[in-house]
Here is the input.
Amino acid sequence: MSRKKETLTLSVPPGIKEQLEAIALRLGITWGKSPSISGLLVAIAQQQVELGEPFTLSTVQVQSLTKAAKFLHDEGEIEAAQIVLVLLLDKGNLEPPMRQELLKQVSQTTEAWRIRLNQLIDAHQPFKLFYQSNKDQVSEYTARSAKIRLYDKRLYLEIWCDDAEPREIPELAHNRCFRLDKIVNLLPVSETWRESIDYIKVHLQFFKGLARNYEAKEDEDVENEMVGDVRHVVKQVSNLFWLFRDVRRYGKDCEIILPESVRKKFREELKEMCDRYQLEIRN
Here is the structure.
């Protein structure tokens, strides 16, 4: 059964209809091959498009961000430097010579995949991912949900796919994480889009100086409070590799509390590490 639609009649000055059609066409909101004004109004009402004056960087902001990008690059923060450069290219009112110079500094392959991935994600379009898993092998995955994340100063693609990873806990077995610079191709496919990749909540405790100086991560931490001398943090986690990497970095002043499956898996990795160095563990 088709959904009932309401009719809205608009009276606009001459030329406004053409301007609205131009905006709809620029945003890719069409009915068949023609721009759709009604679709544009729906997108505005549902807050799917931004309104108001386009955001642009001032001259002082451009100069400051250019210096920041150079500093990051010199410090070896290549991925962070490129993120700043992309912001400059997107939002800076740049003179042609400066724009050309910045374009030379941006990794075109990585940036092209980032732009294409954002288009697919925004459209809720499942896609086939072809990935250079090693020098001589290209692996295929069907992504039915995806998100671009910054891990350890580099952009990664996280996807949800049907194939389960046996080394992961069941709650995260369908998640995969990939480097953007190793993507070979992306092809849209006819599958059902999922609302998001999978997540679990992991409870951590921090002690001593780390409890006082812990820097919260807004995109991960859903709870963060001090109880006495101990900091309790609940993280929304999609990948145990990156979680365990942080926990090992924190050392003895961080403990995984819940869920037990994550705590057990981390204990297993610690035991394997001790076995590697011929260290005996007393139960």
In short: Residues 135 and 182 are 10 Å apart (CA to CA). The two ends are 64 Å apart (CA to CA). The chain has a mean pLDDT of 84.
